[in-house]
Amino acid sequence: MIPSLETLMKYRVQIAILAIIISVFAWITEFAGWVYVCPYCRVQRTMIGMLGLLLLANPQHWLNRWIASGLAVLGLIVAGMQHFNGWKKIMSGEFTWGEFWYANAWVLSGCAMFIITGLILYIWAWRPIPVSE
Hints:
By secondary structure, this protein is mainly alpha-helical. The chain has helices spanning 5-10, 12-31, 39-56, 62-92, 105-125.
């Protein structure tokens, strides 16, 4: 069952921490040498972490939303470019999944687009939960 928007509003801090953990884990994989250095991936993982940090702050403040929107646009453009490059390879017959399909840049850039879009929509939709009397 998909959670309602009201339910999601209760878990702002947990969602923000999850985004930060995803970003930090992705950076660790590069620093550990488990993945190759990719400028597209660096931008995407950084934007996911930055949006997580901005979600921890007051997401309803206009400046927070303005900064988050700019970062999200940058992350989405970079992820879209990387994802489109994968589609070009698919259409030309040059695409390969590689040894680990889940670590394919085409798959990961698609996931980054969904995460970044979800985080910016969450930042814009977030409202404080009214206190019940």
